[in-house]
Amino acid sequence: MQNLRSHMEDSYLKYEAPAPFYKKVGFLEKNLYMGSIRNVACPCGFKSPVTVGGSMRDFLKDSRFPFYCETCGIVDVNVAKDDLYCPKCESRDVKQYGIPPISEPPLINRGYVSTRNYQADAKGHLCPACKKKTMEFTLSETCFD
Description:
three-stranded antiparallel beta sheet; 2 helices; mainly beta; 30% strand
């Protein structure tokens, strides 16, 4: 019995956790495991759902992040592709939420909403309805992977 306990303790001390999935596929970004559907809201009354991230099955081909399109307003752009464009009107003139001029500069660069190398704070974003930087991201409504 003592040998078995000694063997188990030695095995436990030598155990190394497997590398995280994103390191195995060559990515160093965080938040690749799960996508989420969040809401954006503005005091003017504007509300809309946005998709952030992608599923484990196809995040290498389809991973979304909110962008601003002059024509369509807030849209979910596929950031897994090199060519970023509006999925509704196919305009190439889209601007990422989270960086100026569409968003206020972040006070603490924590990335309240993030996927890959894209991130945005919770508050201070351009509302497509009233054109003021009062729109906010809410907590995740739905998560998927």
